[in-house]
């Protein structure tokens, strides 16, 4: 089977695999469960200064990455049924459902922006999907690409040691995860909630669900609203 394949187009190929070379993702990379190739955008520059950007049309601060150079870099990569994602603060939020969808696909091509971003015509001409890591501005798309790859690779078959732990994670059922505890039983005067030490599985499950609900209501009213809407449409099965 062909492994899940990632291509990253960047001005800083030395940033990869970076953190993806260690732990779960690194082990899976070594085992050939996924592949990672970088393309240095600068090698597609058409000038002796190796620049890839120019001043913004209409004026203003900063520089914009050129459509023609980025198109040449992108066209050098076989698509193989993969979407091309451009990480940008203007994109749709990166969510667990998007990550899940990506893990089912043949892989992904990521175009990392720098400066003020990329020429809009490239986004339209090559049908890029714009995805945001959150409501803040990074200095480049590389950290967003690393985050997207990390979240996706851990969902690939055989990467997680205990795949059943995925089902309980934050966002998997539309709620944030409940608090976790482990030994020692007492830490700086703080104890583990009694119910977790009771061995009573039904009570533990109910306690965890209540904690998840409380946390989600308090911290993420947007998720809580979506959860309730989904419950109204699709009530949970009781058997
Ligand atoms: N001028 C852009 C704006 O206001 O939307 C910000 C450009 S930022 C300095 C340079 C690059 O970092 C972007 O092209 C994008 O690839 C990446 N980037 C910055 N913030 C990001 C975020 N929240 N999510 C994903 N990518 C981001």
Oligomer: single chain
As a percent range, the share of helical residues equals 25-40%
Distance from N terminus to C terminus (CA atoms, Å) equals 37 Å
Residue ranges: pLDDT <50 for 5 or more in a row?
A: none
Give the integer mean of the pLDDT values: 96
Number of domains: 2
What order do the SSEs take from the amino end to the carboxyl end, as H and E? EHEEEHEHEHEHEEHH
Bound molecules: S-adenosylmethionine
- Count, helices: 7
Based on helices, strands and strand pairing, what is the structural class?
A: alpha/beta
Shape: elongated
Specify the CATH architecture of the largest domain. Answer: 3-Layer(aba) Sandwich
Which radius of gyration do the C-alpha atoms yield? 22 Å
As laid out across the biggest beta sheet, the strand order is 2-1-6-5-7
What is the top-level CATH class of the largest domain?
Alpha Beta
Main sheet summary: 5 strands, parallel
Short description:
This protein is of the alpha/beta class and 239 residues long.
What key phrases describe this protein's structure?
9 strands, 18% strand, Alpha/beta knot, Trp Operon Repressor, Chain A, 5-stranded parallel β-sheet, binds S-adenosylmethionine, alpha/beta, 239 residues, two-stranded antiparallel ribbon
